[in-house]
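Quick note —
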Amino acid sequence: MTEPGKTPREDPPVPPRPQPGGIAARARAAAGAPYLAGLNPEQRLAVEMLQGPVLVLAGAGTGKTRVLTTRVAHILATGHARPGEILAVTFTNKAAREMKQRVGSMVGQIVEGMPWLGTFHSIGVKILRRHAELVALKPDFTILDQDDQIRLIKQLLEAENIDEKRWPARVLAGLLDSWKNRGLTCEQVPAGEAAIFAAGRGKKLYAAYQDRLKVLNAADFGDLLLECIRLFREQSEVLRQYQARFRYILVDEYQDTNVAQYLWLRLLGQSTGGPKTLAPSPRAPSPSPRAPLPSPLAGEGGERSEPGEGGSIAPDGIDAHPSPASPPSLSSGGSAPSPARGEGEPSSRRDDAQEPPGMLKNICCVGDDDQSIYGWRGAEVDNILRFEHDFPGARIIRLERNYRSTGHILAAASHLIAHNQGRLGKTLRTEDEPGEKVKVTSCWDSEEEARAIGEEIEQLQRNDGRGNPHPLDEIAILVRASFQMREFEDRFVTLGLPYRVIGGPRFYERQEIRDALAYLRVIHSAADDLAFERIINVPKRGLGDATVQLLHDHARRRRVPLTAAAQAVIETDELKPKPRTALRDLLAAFERWRTQKETLPHMRLAETMLDESGYTEMWQKDRSADAAGRLENLKELIRSIEEFESLAGFLEHIALVMDAEKSEGEAVSIMTLHSAKGLEFDTVFLPGWEEGLFPHQRTLDDQGRAGLEEERRLAHVGITRARRRVNIYFAANRRMHGLWSSNIPSRFLDELPEADVQVTESRGGFAAYGNTGASRFDEMTHFGSSYGTPGWQRARARRRFGDDGFGDDGEGYSARAEAMDDSSPPPRADERGLRGKPRRRLPLTIEGELVAKSTGTVSEFAIGDRVFHQKFGNGNVTAIDGNKLTIQFDKAGEKRVVDSFVERV
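Predicted structure written out below.
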């Protein structure tokens, strides 16, 4: 504010930039740029190409982050832009911090002056708080989290007299999220999609929700971009200011952008000289400049509801899903033509006039179309595939030299991803050694799969192939679905192998698993107050905090468990009729289940309990993105109970698993393939490569070919996480959705190149298919019993002779069959080569002989011996049948085991 009587103070003049080719520029170039040292030619080209739009296709392990940060440093160091004139957008706060640190290490503290380096939403918040009044908000508006959003939606449903049990608030929240991911405002939601919620009232609720946000001076995550786009379109002067401010735009992980983020970038990517006019899209007629805008993605990082099918027409005339032959229009409503220089605001840069009208910005997008794996939460891989159409004259630079993985791993990944049609195309290569081939192993079932991987990891611990122990931190197991983790966790606890689950809780720590276990604990022990308190109102029965507090008061006064206190309370009038009835029904249910425990198999009891309690139905009605996964986890829990002889034994096992401390030191990493993106390990195990699991059947059913290609990209991501070693497993039998099924190996296996793949035998038990490799029994020197049938003798003889039936001495195998030792091993599936020549017998390398001895040999143990079992602990031998021992364990009860699995105490 200028004081009265004083001349207004003028802003200091902006210093001119060094002239291109002038003395200052030549001196700066002569000084050299140490941050450019070590870049390969493609990386250096991506860093130094500073004019016009650039797309950097950066494959896995090709130095994407280095290129992005070095480009920012180069822009600053060469004076092409000041820190406040660079817009650098990432997807996570962690990536933004890493970028800032790297740039700072190259150019110093100047990086602290970069206010526009951050995530889409953090930058959107910054813009909105500066111009909040222009979008009917105040600068101190509140950003709602998911819980607040759900509460607000519940209020709206109640106001509209909509039954929240029939039409859950979470379902509407998921729909809003899906519509916003696709760039649809309430006016643009198709009538057919609006009709799927509350008998066609979805659109009305969307509008009421947005209106309520304004009254509360609040915004959800989606509004952080929605309101920005509306601000830019309705306030052309504001848009022009930001267009003038940002000389360079850099975008990380461009393949993961959704429609709203794409529109936001396109508006800012226009030049201040006026909107770029391309040929209008025949699919997208241009609306009025004041048309409403599509809504943005509701947030980042968490799981999202899958978007609905069908395209959407962006309100600024850009077809959100155009065909490659029809470049979308960037005009028609992006902003009104900005006033000429000198008519409104003086230019803050002296060289703006050098940009031709309509010129697109110096925008650089870095990404990999082969790593677009988040379509289920709104990401549009088409954004990167149509970059050349969106930005005519764009330069595409491919980074194909991989600095992470060995040659065989890269060849396998490249050959696999080449089967996708929707890609721009590149081939990863390396100048390092070929390394080990990708190993593919068949297993009989998922239990053998877990055993085999556990044994392989223990072997690597002893020797990584180079004479050194393999660090556990450099080993990862990447699964397609979270329910697969359970068997690995159980196996690792048995082996005493430290592990950590990344990207989520351990299997037995998940909400639905802990709830189900709490029910089982109360059935097993009525005095388990902690378990009873956890599930007393899950699912909701009207037994709130007041009821629980009343029960606690009774229990403390009488020094009895909560269940006993509840039994006493329901006989009085201390509770209102409705909660008293609910509590009485719950106690009766537990009493019924305890009675059934004596007659029903414990697996069937658990299924009955989950159904009759309403817990399964609760998740079936929940239409959130993770509800299906929770149901799969519950079915996996039921399956795991089957392995134990009693409910008590199962609960004791769970207690041991939960008691296993999370390792603070080295540990094997277990995570989903989606969580593994951006990480790397020396050794990667990829289990579950079977049709229906990977590629996932639900993805194929919902999205067809597009879903298949995304699943293939997910496989590509999994393989390229490894530096030195990739082991792929598939099981012939797996229990999914509560049922055993015979599985077909994943189609992705046959899409791997044979020259880079080695088929190996499972270390964990029986092989799944005879044509995938030799059986472990073929490695044994003898069996514990002999067979004398003619077919058996011929089979044993045939393994020593060629297909013609004669050996080197000319004597036929039939004539010599009876002269053979009865202890000869059975014929190997691959004993003879393609030309019938006998193969050399492999030495004994696995413990198969011990398995075979379980048929007929006499145990060296005696009744009464004190023994120790790694899983069940100490016990006494009570009966012997061959090599099978019946043991009364101190804690686990009576069990029957093979003698090779115990040792004398």
